[in-house]
Amino acid sequence: MKDFDLDDLRKVMLISAGVDEGIDIEGDILDTSFTDMGFDSLAVLELVSRIERDWGVAVPDEVASDLKTPGEVLDYVNRRAGVN
Amino acid sequence: MSGAAPVVTGVGVVAPTGLGVEEHWAATLRGTRRIDTISRFDASSYPVSLAGEVQAFTAAGNVPGRLIPQTDHWTHMALVATDMALSDAGVDPADLPEYEMGVVTASSSGGVEFGQREIQELWSKGARYVGAYQSIAWFYAATTGQISIRHGMRGPCGVVVAEQAGALESLAQARRVLEDGARLVVSGGTDAPFSPYGLTCQIANGRLSSRRDPQRAYLPFDTDANGYVAGEGGAILIVEDAEKARERGAEKVYGVIAGHAATFDPAPGSERPPALRRAIENALADAGLAPGDVDVVFADAAGVPELDQAESEAIAAVFGDRAVPVTAPKTMTGRLYAGGPALDIVTALLAIRDSIIPATVGVSDPVPGYAIDLVVHEPRVTEVRTAMVLARGYGGFNAALVLRAP
Question: Coiled coil where (chain A) (predicted)?
């Protein structure tokens, strides 16, 4: 399976949380916290549930609450995908 | 509170009659009927196919992008109406103490369109396809909560669910909150009841018109009354403590909330009469006014013959036969549920501002036995110092609100 990359994640972010007029997710956001990008805990939950649905990688709720940046999400998803 | 009755200092309208207060008012004075075939989904196979929809509204570009996927159409409309109302009032919430600003809105349908979409995902694809935002988008308090978060209003918040009576109750609750020390409350309400599921729920009450001709579908007080047409949208009002509004230099005061009362009808089959009359009397008493002080009554106008009869009897009993002008501009928009009385309040305040009573449209043959002076066909130019807005909600809610010129 193809790696889940930052562009894939950007698409899911856009679908799951919409566009925030004040935040550019096209830039280097690997280490930007979701909180700084206006994602509250519910938005992160929606994000990981869409990843689970569309990419087949389950992210347990307790893990989701620990994923603070896009980089951490990519690491987790690709590591789990490798295991699967 | 300063002791003086609270004042309305800003209004925002998202309604079938238009976006923004002046567009709404111009369309209302023209007598523009905005009832048409439902366009939000294909309702052609439903026993009810007409509605008053807000045609020109788009969330994109008007609602913060983040909030669009998180909230229902009903919340989108309220967020935009709130922006308008705050701007109209000249209020930047960042300038005021966050715990002294509250939000009390009314809702009747909640987020039915959002909820239906998620339920369809559930039954067609499974639980994993139900979005996380369903948890916050559907329920009645969602609009109040989103307004509170967006504008940093951390004072008393709540939602009133009383079908069509709800928005009058939201103003009454706003008044209580101001008495308890708040300075400003975002009040009023919207509704967006048009998804297949939402419409089906309404049809169950047996009061909607099944006609397909927009000209003949909603004719309250007419010999041809045959039910009502539902609509969407509503209005948001900024209600302030009179003294504190003056202190902050509020430039506009639309009117004063002078009195309110709510009553509940006796159980079906009871020998006792409906309680609307008592709501009217109690609201007048609360305002310290006599019936002769009221210049216009904005009727609930159910469009169902026995309910129209009960309302006209209640009005005539308190005010006298044909003694006060009665109007129902909601004949242009349909009944907006929680949004309806909020819009009526705005319209009543504009009637006070401009000394003109907008007309009830479409009614050509009022029932001769109803002893009310119904304003039909054309607006009536007359000084309006005091207006009463009536609302009845399905299930027995009655409410009356008295507004006075500033």
Answer: none
| B64 with A20: Cβ contact below 8 A | yes
DSSP state of B357: E
Q: ipTM value, please give it.
A: 0.88
Residue with tokens 């139900």, as numbered in its chain? B130
Query: pLDDT of B258-291, one tens digit each?
Result: 999 999 999 989 999 999 999 999 999 999 999 9
B68–A18 C-beta distance less than 8 A: yes
Closest Cα of chain A to B180: distance in Å?
A: 32
Count of CB pairs separated by less than 8 Å, A with B: 38
Question: Which residue reads 């609270």 in tokens?
Answer: B6
Beta bridge partners of B237: B11, B187
Structure tokens at B239: 């209600």
| Interface contact flag, A18 B131, Cβ < 8 Å | no
For the entire predicted model, the pTM comes to 0.96
**Whole-number Å distance between alpha carbons of B353 and B99:** 32
Torsional class of A57: left (φ above 0), alpha (ψ -120 to 50), beta (otherwise):
beta
Give the integer Cα–Cα distance in Å for B198 and A40: 30
Q: Among B64, B67, B131, whose Cβ lies nearest the Cβ of A46?
A: B131
Query: What phi-psi label fits residue B142: left (phi over 0), alpha (psi between -120 and 50 degrees) or beta?
Result: alpha
